[in-house]
Amino acid sequence: xxxxxxxxxxxxxxxxxxxxxxxxxxxxxxxxxxxxxxxxxxxxxxxxxxxxxxxxxxxxxxxxxxxxxxxxxxxxxxxxxxxxxxxxxxxxxxxxxxxxxxxxxxxxxxxxxxxxxxxxxxxxxxxxxxxxxxxxxxxxxxxxxxxxxxxxxxxxxxxxxxxxxxxxxxxxxxxxxxxxxxxxxxxxxxxxxxxxxxxxxxxxxxxxxxxxxxxxxxxxxxxxxxxxxxxxxxxxxxxxxxxxxxxxxxxxxxxxxx
Amino acid sequence: xxxxxxxxxxxxxxxxxxxxxxxxxxxxxxxxxxxxxxxxxxxxxxxxxxxxxxxxxxxxxxxxxxxxxxxxxxxxxxxxxxxxxxxxxxxxxxxxxxxxxxxxxxxxxxxxxxxxxxxxxxxxxxxxxxxxxxxxxxxxxxxxxxxxxxxxxxxxxxxx
Lengths: 258, 160
Description:
The structure holds two protein chains of two kinds.
Chain A: H1 2-18, H2 24-42, E1 46-50, H3 55-62, H4 64-79, H5 82-97, H6 99-103, H7 110-140, H8 147-175, H9 178-196, H10 203-209, H11 211-220, H12 228-255
Helix pairs in contact in A: 1-7, 2-4, 2-7, 4-11, 5-7, 5-8, 5-9, 7-8, 8-9, 8-11, 8-12, 10-11, 10-12, 11-12
Chain B: H1 2-21, E1 26-32, E2 38-44, E3 48-57, E4 61-67, H2 68-78, E5 88-93, E6 96-100, E7 106-113, E8 120-128, H3 133-159
Antiparallel strand pairs in B: 1-8, 2-7, 3-6, 3-8, 4-5, 4-7
Helix pairs in contact in B: 1-3
């Protein structure tokens, strides 16, 4: 058990030193924090009304904290584009430069290797995005969102990133190419964003494909907010898709020649 | 060492974002006519510089600065705008260009009325005077933690 743990730790050390070497991880942290702060500080701080329609004042104040969270989160939709790029660096590039051969000289299973690589992308991206929210919200928001709202958004962030990473990982192990991984991930992201803008798009599909936007719509009760049953079911289906995509990736990776 | 570098970079980004986006001005165009008055709510963290100029039409207006929550309660209770006790009020003025003192981070409300029935269009610009000190201090603390971690891990490495 101890030896196994030591092997995993040395694998993590190699992975952080190679795929996440300076300044990749630091750059990702900077981009994520900058994006969130830019949207939170420069947008959505005002609303106007006339005496003919005083009710929006109440609505606005009542939903100010979730609304600010929603505006801040809008930048995250773009920042999630980092996922295919990072998967390409961590999972696809070792096929091209032959680094998997070096990796596999270590007494580690292929499954452990792929879980470490894809898991670190999810951990770093979602962990940094969650930290950006947790650190900056108490310092910038005049009214704080509830713990339940915050928790829901953070869970949705982890799920959305896991979805992007699982799709990009599948493309990476199937094509073994850095460029196709990046392009494939961007295509999925673009299709996802285009579908979100469609009128009459089923809300459950929106939750499955983009749990993060669905969660912020849900807490702000925007005009595209899903009903709670759709939201819960959508989150579960999305998680199942992530699991299936990872299982497929592991199966392909087991049989792939490196 | 890596953790220290990441924390340091995050701290620098927080400080830079505060300085770049913290003083972002709010602009709002206000149309007043007959019995219609207009207000807007904004979040602010420091004293603000407010500039109001009349574009067209009549020229006399009144401006009130209220605490946002106070304004909200007024609306909720009465279902119409009856002014709560304003933090500042300027009545029958033709333009405004001055600094307004705010108690701290919060939601505020600028409300405009005109005694004239003629249509009046106003341009308002609200600029925060200082950076968000809470966020700036947060950024400085995070940067310092990162710096301490970098220096101590560098020291430990050298000792080994």
